[in-house]
Each structure stands twice: as structure tokens, then as C-alpha cells.
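Assemble and predict.
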Amino acid sequence: MSTSTIDRDFNKNFLISLGMHALIAILAVLGGKVISTVFKNDDVEIIRSAVRVDVVGMPKFTVQELKAMQKEAPRPNEPEVAVGKKEETKVETEDVIKKDDLVIQKESKKKNKASFLSLLNEASNKKVEAKEQKKGKADGKDNKNLEALVLEGNRLSSGTAIVGEYSDQSNSAIGIYGQTVLDNTRRFWKLPSYLKEMNLACQIRVYLSSSGSILKLDLHKSSGNSEYDAKAEKAVRDAAPFVKPDAELAPRLANSGLILAFPL
Amino acid sequence: MTKIFFLISVLFSFSIFAQTDATATKVDSTVPVFAVGEAELEKDKFVIDDPENGSLSGSQKSLSLELIDILKNDFVFYKHKFNTVDYSEKGKNSYSNPALEKWQAGGVTYFVASQMKSSGSGIEAKFKAFSVTSKKEIFAASFNVDQVNLRQRSHQIADQIYRAVTGKPSIFNSKIVFVSDRSSTKKETMKELYIMDFDGRRVERLTNFNSMVISPSVAPDNSKIMFSVIAAHREVSRNKVRTIKNIDLKTFDLATKKISTISDRPGINSGAIFSARGNVIYLTLSYTGNADIYEMNLATGALRKVTTHYGDDVDPSINREGTLMTFLSNRAGRAHIYTMDPNGTEKGVDRISFVGQFNATPRFSPDGKEIVFTSWVDNGFDIYRIDSAGKNLVRLSKDFGSNEEPVFSPDGEFIVFTSKRVISRKKAVQDVYIMNREGEIMGQLTQDFGRCFSPQWTNILK
């Protein structure tokens, strides 16, 4: 066998070997990707879903406490921060296991072992700590927006929640600013029973200065009842001044304003 | 060309309608419209003026003042609706001369005037109520009041004025049935049935079993109270007579004071409630070995199984139409609240509570839209409200002892419940309280009356 024949065979086998190695390497890479795709992602989704359910608990705050919180929320009479830029409003939910919680869980496990009917009887004989009730203000105000504040309970949540219902449109700068105007105005939007039962509607156009105060109010659409229109106008005036708009939004609010519909 | 124009118009219309769903809608490209929503109800400024007294004796004068005080106190319960205001101005004779302009200037929306005259040992009380805003007399009536009927008559007057103002019945004529252990001895705990006015006055004992009365329920026409009692049954076995304790179901007729047995099957006969028509009852029976809810025809005694699950099903409550029942069951392990159609068996069972260590005593609101219940949280029970579809769960009580057995008032505006707090190692008190539907405590109804349990409201009769 000549040297050239040996070299030719060597080169041929070398190339075949190289090709086979390259093929194995490609298969290994592709196989790994396929395996990770098939077995990885769905499991993660299921676990996340389960965690969401576990976080759900009984509401910690009472309706009265939520009302008080709403009242105590700082009113932007002297706003420091300009509003108009896209921002997510989040509420922290407490998710800390306390010592007392563990005791209760132990008790609960014991309870599950006992019969359900005997538990019903025992339940009313448990000793409890006597505590004074925190007296909340009881003037029946601010019933609206309570649902937005009820962030716990049977609602599924991963621990944080966005307050209110924002559409795509209301996520714009004017939309976000308008929501703050809306939230303030709602606090003052009240009607006596005889007017409330008439099912009237009106629209007020409000022009705002760069500081958030009212430049001008127009009755855009009258309800046909002057007292109703006046109550709506009073709600806007009582709610002002509003949050200071950002510089880009201010000219628009001064020139075109925005329209508040009472109720829709 | 026309078709293209029409198509563009249609597409443009769709885009406009699509926008109207958003909170912020646009009437043109620059001015967005924001919906403020429904207005909150502004409380009516409500005045019950001092009476215009004729020639009255000392006792008649105090009767007159007491009557007005009861009226004012009744309306305070509805303080979420009325801002009751006192205006004292001697000699203004507001019954003879209502002077509505003056009240209107003071921002008053409703105004009640009265005139008291001597009538035997009591008084003749004439009342008028005015809508100041519409400048109309909306109520006028005369009542004979004496020391014996003072409280009952005062609540009747208050209810009639409330109806004239709101067009709806009040709780003023209603009563609360409850159980108390105040007759217990040192050796034995005994619980008996009592009834009192909605404001906690005029308490009357109804039963003398010297035993344990539990779970009272009031008939729709208020004629009867159904309850369970631990009774002694004699049992003959192998020629030996022995006494066993059983939970029997009985009724108390409020007119005749007669007690009748409805069911004394072996085991539990309890948690019974009347249907809205009163002809059938729903109760828990365990004579088959498992606690299930049954429907019983009161006339024939015929039974129909409503639940059949191997878990224990107790505490039924039915909406006014009889189309939805809520009950408590441990079929999922822990005690949770379920709803179902009571006209079938295990029909349309839907679990509506998914959280809480231990939930109990679900009770419908009168309109059937909401359920109030109690749940073990932290170191005691607290009261929660949820709608009948299982949404909008809210907490009503907190840091107020352990609060149990909530029941809506017949007008749906209030919730009666028991609250327990520990005084010492050996002593705990448990009393009946009222809160409004938003969880604001309105008052304590019982005090120093033993430990009180299972309050139930009587119904409003038209």
C-alpha cells in the first residue's frame, strides 16, 4: 500500500469521524432543547397557580377599617408630586407567618381529627381574649369605592393587586390623571334620597390650572334639574384642588379640560 | 363607492361603541369623559320635635316625654340613613303651626310634630310627619298611650312614621328570640327560650324545660317558634328501662303557649328552619347514622332528603323564594359554606367559601343576595358577609370578643349576633348585640342575663 493511499484513507475516515461527532453534538443540543421544552415550562405554571390559591385568606380589615383608611388617605390639596406618568398602584399584602398563626394551625389539625358535629358544639365554648373595639367613625360616608379596597378574601391574588379597574385608554397620561380627579370627586358626590331616586344624569366640564386648581367649570350637559346639577358642581368644587398635573399634561387640562359624568 | 362608504361608517360605529365600555370615554379627540358613578346617599336631616302638651298631670307629662325619647332612640338605629337633630325652642307649637319654611332654612328634610292630650290615666298622642323638601304632610295619626302599652305603642308609631318617610317597613315592631343559660344551677347548665323587643327591652321567658334549648327559628307569620331541646327518652332493652338523651324538635305557639313535638327520631333533630310559606321545614336529622338535611312537610310529617353526601350537612338557611339553600358541610374536609337548590337532592351544590379555618352558621339576607356567617380567625370567631354567588367577601367584626350566630334583620339593614368575652379564668360573658350591615355596632341588647345564644329575628308582617 502506497503512502498516498494511506493518506487518502486517513483523510476520508477523519472526515467521516468529524461529521459523526458534529452530528452527535447537534443532536445533543437539539435534544436538550426539546427535553427542556417538553418537561420544564408547564410544571412551573402549575406551581405558580397553586401558590396563588394558597395566598388567599380571610379579609384582615373590616368594612369600617377600610372606610377609615379611605378617609385617612391624604387628600392632594397640596400635591408635591406631579401626576400623569404611567405608574402601577400596588397594595402590599401581609404574608408573614406569626407565632399565633402556627398555634391556630395546630389546633386546626386537631379539630379535623375530631368529629364535625362535636366541633360545632365545642366551637362556641372557646375562650377568647376580651378586647375593646376600635371605634370607627360611623357617619356612613364613603361607601363608594369600598369594593376597590377589598383586596383580600376570595379573590385570587399573588400578593399584590392593582387598585381599580384601568382600561387601556385610562392607562394614558390623561386617563391616569382623570382617575385621580374622579377618586377625589367621588368622595363629595352625595345626593339626598329624593334626588337619588329620580335617576338623573349630567356632565360637568372642568378646566384645571397647572397647580391642579379649577380654572373654570361648565355644565356640559344638564340633567334638567337645577338642584341635581348644582350638587354635581358642588362635588367637583369641594374635591378641588386636584393633584398637580405634569408639565406635558397641564396645557391640555387648561385648554380642553376634562368632562365628569354624574353618574355615567 | 356607496358600499365602501357604508362599510367605513359601520366600522367607525363599532369603534365608537367599543370605547363606551371604558371608564374614560372620549366625546372628541381631546376631551375624555370620566364616569363618577352613583352618588352616595346623603343622610336626611330628621327632626322629632318636642311635643305640644295640653293640660297634663305630672305622670302624663313624663309619659309624653318618654314616648318621644323612645321614638328618637328607635330612629338612631337607622343613623346611616337619618341624621336625627334636636331643635329646642319653647312654645313654638310645631304641631299647630309646622312652619315648614323655617325647617327648610335649617336644612331639615323630614320633621315630626306631636300634640299630647290627657286621656284617662294615659294620653292621646297625635302625630304628624312632613316632608320639608316637598312641603307635604306625609303622615297623621292619633294613638292612645298608657304606661302598660308605652313601649309597644311607641315602636308602632315609630314604624308608621318610618314607613311614611321611606316607603319601607322598619325593625321597630320586630322582636328577637334567643336562648339564655341564666336559669342554670351550680350543678347543671340549663338553657331556655326568651323573647325581647328589638332594642333589648321587655324580655319574656318562654320555656321551662329545665334542660338545654338550642337553635330557635321563627315561623314566617310569627305565630310559632321552632327549636330543639335535649330531652330524656325512655328505652326498654332486655327487660331493662334506661333513659337516654336525645335532641328533639319542638314548636312553641306564641298565642296559646302550647309546646308540640315535631320530630323525636333517634339522634339529632335540630337546626330546623321554616320555608318562606311555612308549610315545610328544613332540618338536620342523623337517625340514619349520618347528619343530612331533610325537608319535612309539617302537615303530613313526610320527609325528603335534600343532601345525601357522606359528610355532615348542617345549618340550612333558605332564601325567600325557596330556590336557594345555604348550608354548612365538612364534605371537603373543613367546615365550608355551600349553596344548592333545596327542591332537589344534592341539586346544584356549589361551594362558596374556600378560606377560613372554621366557618359556621351561614344565614341569608332577606333578599337572598347575601350570606352572613362566622369564621374562626386569630383567637375567636368573627362575622363576615359574602354574596350568594361566593363573591365580595367582607369582614364585619374584629377586636370585639368572639362573635357568632349572625342573623340579618327582616329589612336586611342590621345583623343580630352574640359576642363573648372572657372576664376571668372562670367567667365569660356572652351577650346579644346589633350591628348594621356595614359592621358598625349599634348596641348591646342583653346585659347580666346569663350567657345568651342563637338570636333570631321575628319577621315583618305587612
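Residues 38-55, 77-81, 86-114, 126-167 of chain A have pLDDT under 50 and may be disordered.
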